[in-house]
Amino acid sequence: MMEKEVMDKRHLRSIKTRQKLLEAAKEVFLEEGFQKATISQMIKKAEVGYGTAYVHFEGKEDILIVLMEDVMGKFYEIAEISFYPKSKEEAENIIHKQAYSFLKMAETERRMLQIFEQAIGISSAVSEKWKSIREKFIQRISKDISYAQENGLARKELNHELVARGWFFTNEMYLWDIVRNERQESVEEIAKTITAVYTRGLYL
Amino acid sequence: MMEKEVMDKRHLRSIKTRQKLLEAAKEVFLEEGFQKATISQMIKKAEVGYGTAYVHFEGKEDILIVLMEDVMGKFYEIAEISFYPKSKEEAENIIHKQAYSFLKMAETERRMLQIFEQAIGISSAVSEKWKSIREKFIQRISKDISYAQENGLARKELNHELVARGWFFTNEMYLWDIVRNERQESVEEIAKTITAVYTRGLYL
DNA sequence: CAAGGAATATGACATTATGTCAATAATATA
DNA sequence: TATATTATTGACATAATGTCATATTCCTTG
């Protein structure tokens, strides 16, 4: 039972138009960057009328958000890695793995993330989207720190939310650094180094 | 000997025009934000002709960069605090003080930094300017870590530049968080917490 | 199966910005 | 005073956005 079988011919056409627009938009974004990309370029490439773009999307920002949705999904997956360490060493392993996966995304999805970074500065809709990913991570890390504190693994005197935020911030900035191709060092080395400082700073 | 005495009447007029534009621009930026601020609003407020703005500046971005220059200066001062600790405790004190001063800037200069943050995303000129501040700090921190490592205060096995970057990133992100008014906690508490994790993670 | 109705698509248009430039005004200099 | 230099000006060309009345395409119902 493919969903498409059920559809109207015109609904189908609509979906196809939308799809053509998304594909064209992706190309245009990658070629021009977020700022310089224009609706006109997209509709030309998609071979549809100008107004059509506004039928399907609210504007450039909206299109980018849709294009980013699967990348978003991958971030959420990483945020959900389970965390029940029995020792400092085990904690370090899990944390390292998580940081590594997170930073690896920068390499895997570099091109789209570059566009996304540009858009974060410009579009508040995109920026909100990213903020929600960030808060998801911070909440999660915060919970993990609490768990470690309750189980006598981590320093209890530290405000877990502040620590979580600080730790995530380091990760996030390295993510963008890598996205911009500004780091020589391997993702592995970066992950190892920042995890080492963090775990030794927090754990007993 | 005031510089002004030396000037032509017309050079003086030019300086005044420029000044009027800068003051008007600041108001407009603060009222409208970077995106929505327009040259037209500024020249109207400054009571000069449209083209005049382009005689004195290359555009919105350029005006903002000039407006930010004294804030920049304050950042550079903080980056230059001297660092020759004799013990882990002394190091922690200096580092805490530096982090505190840095984050305090977020409160003191909040309004202009808000505009600056918006502009970083949009204008590559502004973004470059910020990047140079960031690199200045990272270089400096990097040197400080090396010093501590050579003097047997810090863990030698860690790549000092990677650690420096990570530490600065935490600070920077908290800076923007505070600028956005998104933190309840006091600057003092934030500085204390992140410094505690960092110094324990890095120092012996 | 034909006619009317609903969903889609279209591009001309009004709007709003930007940056340029030839003309004009103000001031300096010879 | 006449001429050169510098500063200012606003009209214009350009470019992008988002809207909307109209056209097209397909579905439904009598």
TrEMBL record, chains A, B:
<dbReference type="InterPro" id="IPR009057">
    <property type="entry name" value="Homeodomain-like_sf"/>
</dbReference>
<dbReference type="GO" id="GO:0003677">
    <property type="term" value="F:DNA binding"/>
</dbReference>
<dbReference type="InterPro" id="IPR036271">
    <property type="entry name" value="Tet_transcr_reg_TetR-rel_C_sf"/>
</dbReference>
<dbReference type="InterPro" id="IPR001647">
    <property type="entry name" value="HTH_TetR"/>
</dbReference>
<protein>
    <submittedName>
        <fullName>TetR/AcrR family transcriptional regulator</fullName>
    </submittedName>
</protein>
<dbReference type="InterPro" id="IPR050624">
    <property type="entry name" value="HTH-type_Tx_Regulator"/>
</dbReference>
<keyword id="KW-0678">Repressor</keyword>
<feature type="domain" description="HTH tetR-type">
    <location>
        <begin position="15"/>
        <end position="75"/>
    </location>
</feature>
<dbReference type="Pfam" id="PF00440">
    <property type="entry name" value="TetR_N"/>
</dbReference>
<feature type="DNA-binding region" description="H-T-H motif">
    <location>
        <begin position="38"/>
        <end position="57"/>
    </location>
</feature>
<dbReference type="InterPro" id="IPR023772">
    <property type="entry name" value="DNA-bd_HTH_TetR-type_CS"/>
</dbReference>
<keyword id="KW-0238">DNA-binding</keyword>
